[in-house]
């Protein structure tokens, strides 16, 4: 947490004071059904903290800039700890390697088993030779609650979501 706080102090001084007050000592986390048992939260942000997203995003900016400097043609998108990179296979491969080497310096650990590479049909074999440690698909995959991929894949995704949806409707109250 201290490392993250120093990064935020450099990039957003106003938020730094709040974060120091909030995270200078470990938070108590109470265990459900633990009869008052609590553990200390020594890492990361506290669930429910409204500034957690800003804290996390600011702390990753140096890593994002570093990977962008190493691979200028990659298109990067991040939402919390979900990152994506787009481009041709060589560009995305260089980005993947940069992310694997730079990420741990900033507490960002990639998980190859949860990583999916979406490629155009006809590029599967080339992708498999460059990316040996991640899942590769031409159909598509769910990303941030939505779907990226072919129309057929989208239809399967929507059918699956409909089948798990409840029978009642949700009307937002304004």
Written description of the protein model:
This protein has 6 helices and 8 strands. It has 174 residues and is an alpha+beta fold. The strands form 4 sheets. Strands 1-2 form a two-stranded antiparallel ribbon. A hairpin with a 2-residue loop joins β7 (140-143) and β8. α1 runs antiparallel to α2 (13-23). The protein is globular and about 55 Å long. The two termini are 38 Å apart. 14% of the residues are buried. The mean pLDDT is 83.
Tags for this model:
174 residues, alpha+beta, two-stranded antiparallel sheet, 8 strands, 18% strand
Short description:
By secondary structure, the protein is α+β, with helices and mostly antiparallel strands. It is built from six helices and eight strands; from the N terminus they run ααββαββαβαβββα. β3 (75-79) and β4 form a beta hairpin.
Shape: globular
Q: In percent terms, what proportion of residues is strand? A: 15-25%
Query: So how many helices?
Result: 6
Sheet with the most strands?
Answer: 2 strands, antiparallel
Write the layout of secondary structure elements.
Layout: H1 2-11, H2 13-23, E1 27-30, E2 38-41, H3 52-70, E3 75-79, E4 82-86, H4 89-102, E5 116-118, H5 124-130, E6 135-137, E7 140-143, E8 146-149, H6 151-164
Parallel strand pairs: 5-6
Antiparallel strand pairs: 1-2, 3-4, 7-8
